[in-house]
Structure formats: structure tokens, C-alpha cells
UniProtKB/TrEMBL annotation:
<keyword id="KW-0408">Iron</keyword>
<feature type="binding site" description="in other chain">
    <location>
        <position position="33"/>
    </location>
    <ligand>
        <name>NAD(+)</name>
    </ligand>
</feature>
<feature type="binding site" description="in other chain">
    <location>
        <position position="167"/>
    </location>
    <ligand>
        <name>Fe cation</name>
    </ligand>
</feature>
<feature type="binding site" description="in other chain">
    <location>
        <position position="221"/>
    </location>
    <ligand>
        <name>NAD(+)</name>
    </ligand>
</feature>
<feature type="binding site">
    <location>
        <position position="152"/>
    </location>
    <ligand>
        <name>Fe cation</name>
    </ligand>
</feature>
<keyword id="KW-0520">NAD</keyword>
<feature type="binding site">
    <location>
        <position position="231"/>
    </location>
    <ligand>
        <name>glycine</name>
    </ligand>
</feature>
<dbReference type="GO" id="GO:0052837">
    <property type="term" value="P:thiazole biosynthetic process"/>
</dbReference>
<dbReference type="InterPro" id="IPR002922">
    <property type="entry name" value="Thi4_fam"/>
</dbReference>
<feature type="binding site" description="in other chain">
    <location>
        <position position="124"/>
    </location>
    <ligand>
        <name>NAD(+)</name>
    </ligand>
</feature>
<keyword id="KW-0479">Metal-binding</keyword>
<comment type="subunit">
    <text>Homooctamer; tetramer of dimers.</text>
</comment>
<comment type="function">
    <text>Involved in the biosynthesis of the thiazole moiety of thiamine. Catalyzes the conversion of NAD and glycine to adenosine diphosphate 5-(2-hydroxyethyl)-4-methylthiazole-2-carboxylate (ADT), an adenylated thiazole intermediate, using free sulfide as a source of sulfur.</text>
</comment>
<protein>
    <recommendedName>
        <fullName>Thiamine thiazole synthase</fullName>
        <ecNumber>2.4.2.59</ecNumber>
    </recommendedName>
</protein>
<feature type="binding site" description="in other chain">
    <location>
        <position position="60"/>
    </location>
    <ligand>
        <name>NAD(+)</name>
    </ligand>
</feature>
<comment type="pathway">
    <text>Cofactor biosynthesis; thiamine diphosphate biosynthesis.</text>
</comment>
<dbReference type="GO" id="GO:0016763">
    <property type="term" value="F:pentosyltransferase activity"/>
</dbReference>
Length: 256
């Protein structure tokens, strides 16, 4: 029995992995913007892999506002929740609330069912940049990263890489620092996130969602970090709309 269980896991895991070593889109970070983008691209038949540092995908959704496990969504983004079959309640004035556990698990389940490979407990530690294009991610197990073990990573090649790493914008930071690329921001560099301003933050999240460099796209709070947008706390419509917007842009670029 024991060896059959081990064998079943090893066989199915490596079949799954083998199929995702070259992908259309590699997403770094399974937060709300990354999960929405992944699902939209996978529904278009694209091969999408997400790499999430933590054991649980979902990013900043789980904790609601200050661990009160409800989030707020504005009316214009409700259709995205509906597409994931996630329920919500009216809070008046065009605002709605949803249970953050239902939102996180609903987005993860939706992405999986659309065919996305979610690699949890895997960190992206570098990018591949060749001939003026970001074309892959360098990955390692999070425990290896955390323990500082001297273990070489592996590489997944991708037609497009999405930085969905939230506030730190880690992939854009890596790409600008290590590959020395100039990105599509007013300064050509990372401009840094501005302080809390909910209304402007929601709008700037969508506005700043873009292609920063050939092969490199940015969504969610990483987009605000790159282009100097405001933070906004536990209102999430902008994150969902950012995911949808970047998916449309990537699809157009991949399909030419
Ligand atoms: O921060 P996060 O939820 O991304 P987001 O889509 O959404 C932001 C909101 O949650 C919230 C907000 C809403 O108003 O402001 O902050 O921008 O999720 C980012 C995910 O990326 C993972 C990280 O663990 C988190 O789950 N991550 C960050 N760096 C890496 C990474 C990395 N180098 N490799 C893998 N995963």
C-alpha cells in the first residue's frame, strides 16, 4: 500500500510538471490579480503556470481588513465575482462585501478548473532575459529559499511573464536590477508605491496595469509599485479588473 501511494503521487506530479515546463504565461504570485489573469488566459486555451511562494495561494485576500474576513468590492467589478460563482452582499452606495475565505478559495478553484497549474511553495528568484525580452522564470522551493540552502534552481520558459507579486513588485525589481532593463514608466525605473488613497488607488491599479518591457507584464499592487500608484487597503475590485486587463493585453500580444 505505502509504495503504491508514493508511486501514485510521484507519477501524477511529474506528468503534470512535464506539461508545464514551457508555458504561454508564467505568473509570479497567486494574489487576486494573478488568479483572475490566469483564469482568463487558461479559458482562452493558453498554458498558464502560477508560482506562489506560500503554501496557500490567495495572497492578500484571506485576511480581509485587519483580519476581519470580509472584503469590499465596487459595483463595476462584480461581474468578475459572478464569473467565479462567488457570492456578495450590498453594503450601499455602490459598494459590496464578500467573505474573504469564499473569495480566496473561489478564485483558486476557478483557476484550477480552468486548467492553470498552481505551483505552491515555489518562489521565483530570477528571470531569464534574452535578446531584449523577458522569456522565463527561475524557480526554487520556498523552504530552500527560506533556509538559505545552496541548491541550484530550475527554469520555466514562457512567452510572457506576469509580475503579480503585490506590494514589493519583486519581479520588476529583479528584472530592472539584474537584467538592467528600462521599463515603461515615466522614469524608465520603478517609481515606488504612494500612500493610502482608496479611490485613486483603485483607479491607478487598473491604469498602471501594463506591459513594462517585451515579455514582462505587471498587475495588481506590483503595477502601482512600478508606476507610482496609491495603495488602497481591503477594496479589491481594482485587483480583479487589473487581472482581466492584463489577460487581454497578453492574449493580444501572444496571438499577434
Ligand atoms: O499581494 P497579493 O495579494 O497580490 P495582488 O494581486 O493583490 C493585492 C491585494 O491582495 C492587497 C491590496 C488590495 O487592495 O492592496 O495587497 O497585487 O499577492 C501576491 C502574492 O505573490 C507572492 C506572495 O506570496 C503573494 O501570495 N509572491 C511574492 N513574491 C513572490 C511570490 C516570488 N518571488 N515568488 C513567488 N511568489
Amino acid at each position: 500500500m505505502e509504495e503504491r501511494i508514493t508511486s501514485a503521487i510521484v507519477r501524477t506530479y511529474f506528468e503534470k510538471l512535464q506539461n508545464f515546463l514551457e508555458v504561454d504565461l508564467a505568473i509570479v504570485g497567486a494574489g487576486p490579480s494573478g488568479l483572475v489573469a490566469a483564469t482568463a488566459l487558461a479559458k482562452e486555451g493558453k498554458k498558464v503556470a502560477i508560482f506562489e511562494r506560500l503554501l496557500a495561494p490567495g495572497g492578500g485576500v484571506w485576511g480581509g481588513g485587519m483580519l476581519f474576513n470580509e472584503i469590499v468590492i465596487q459595483e463595476e467589478a462584480l461581474h468578475i465575482l459572478e464569473d467565479f460563482n462567488i457570492s456578495y452582499k450590498s453594503a450601499g452606495d455602490g459598494l459590496y462585501t464578500a467573505d474573504s475565505v469564499e473569495v480566496a478559495s473561489g478564485l483558486i478553484f476557478g483557476a484550477k478548473k480552468a486548467g492553470v497549474m498552481i505551483n505552491n511553495a515555489v518562489s521565483v528568484e530570477d528571470v531569464v532575459c534574452r535578446e531584449g525580452r523577458i522569456c522565463g522564470v527561475v524557480v526554487n522551493w520556498t523552504p530552500v529559499e527560506r533556509l538559505g540552502m545552496h541548491v541550484d534552481p530550475l527554469v520555466v520558459m514562457a512567452k510572457a511573464v506576469l509580475d503579480g507579486t503585490g506590494h514589493p513588485g519583486e519581479i520588476t525589481d529583479l528584472a530592472t536590477r539584474k537584467a538592467g532593463i528600462k521599463i515603461d514608466t515615466p522614469t524608465g525605473k520603478i517609481m515606488g508605491e504612494k500612500p493610502m488613497w482608496m479611490e485613486l488607488g483603485e483607479a491607478s491599479t487598473v491604469e498602471n496595469t501594463k506591459r513594462l518591457y517585451p515579455g514582462l507584464y505587471v498587475s495588481g499592487m506590483a503595477a502601482n509599485n512600478a508606476s507610482g500608484g496609491f495603495r488602497m487597503g481591503p477594496i479589491f475590485g481594482g485587483m480583479f479588473m487589473s487581472g482581466r486587463k492584463v489577460a487581454r493585453m497578453i492574449l493580444e500580444d501572444i496571438d499577434g
